[in-house]
Amino acid sequence: MDRPATQPGWGFLVRMALLGAVLYAATSWVTVFATTSSSAIAGNLRPGVAIPIFFGFAFGPLVGFVVGFGGNLLADTLTGFVQFPLDASSPRALAASLQINWQVANGLLGLIPGFAVLRQWCYQTREGLLKALALTSFAVVGAGLFAAVLDPFVFVYEDQTTIWQTVARDNLPLVLINWIYAAVIVPILLFNYAYRHLYGPAMLRAGLMQRVLLTVVISAAVPIIMLSIFLLEANARLNGGWSGAFGGVFFQLAVTILMTTVFILTNAALMAQSMTRPLIELSASARAMEKNTLTLAQAETLKATTGDDEIAQLSRVFGTMAQEVIQREQELRKHVQELQIMIDEHKRSDQVKEIVETDFFRDLKQKARAMRERGKAQPASTNE
């Protein structure tokens, strides 16, 4: 991801941190009903875990930490895991009522990936996305291990649970689930964010864009509809029929389905644009080259196209070819101008030669010489 020419100010970073925290809390709240059937995991399946990781990659470690810490604290407050007023009878009781180790662990989810901003990784290439996936894995494992190790020091376990038992019981299953969500969602978000400069409403009018988008939407709509019907029917059965199914869980399930649909369609549109926009720009450059209006700067931009896919390679090859053609044309024009100057000088020389060799010019030259001689003779006769 290329760093912008001007660094964002604190106001922008604060807005992004607040936006990310609200998004993280909202996605965690609407998916709080989604728990695993295993009693070994005392938690929820939250695909929103990708949000603080993405905000860390996009806006730096500070924003990532605030999104993870603040968003999880807000989500725990909404879902009842953290209840106010807090128990301030002792520092340990206060830490336990805040579940401080898990709040900090969620902050680490955004803090660790945020350091990638300092390296200016590019997420338009396979190498950049693999680096991001590796750092994401490290963040998920590190955050989960941090929370599990501190659990016995924050909470009081009646069965004298050891640290390693906590890790095996709470850390490993949650790390696996969070890693699956992050490994799938974060690369998609980073890829689309890296190509954010390509997106625009005008792209929807492109024929290739419309065909690709229609194909992706149809392919995604069928499984979404089938899964939605299955989940709603299962919820109705658990609640004794459709009459008792319209409760809080139904609302959260409906919101989750809606968010999933919006996420899939949005990413489908963005990824379709990222695939079709370079082809459209390449086509426009080819037409400009045909009309001899393609500039050297535009050719250099094509030559500097990032990415390791075939479209990026084609853009770089075309940019190199166009640059060489434009440079040759410029050199040819320069030689033509120099040749024109030489021709003009030769013409002037021939014209002067023609004038000098005429009888009129010779006669005029003789008269001028005679006048100069008479002018020299007159002063001599005057002195005598």
From TrEMBL:
Entry annotated with the keyword Transmembrane helix: yes
InterPro entries: ECF_substrate-spec-like, HAMP_dom
Single GO BP term: signal transduction
UniProt-listed Pfam families: ECF-ribofla_trS (PF07155), HAMP (PF00672)
GO cellular component, one term: membrane
Transmembrane segments: 12-36, 48-69, 130-150, 172-191, 212-232, 244-270
Sorted UniProt keywords: Membrane, Transmembrane, Transmembrane helix
UniProt superkingdom: Bacteria
Domain (HAMP): residue spans on this chain: 273-330
Protein name: HAMP domain-containing protein
Organism: Candidatus Chloroploca asiatica
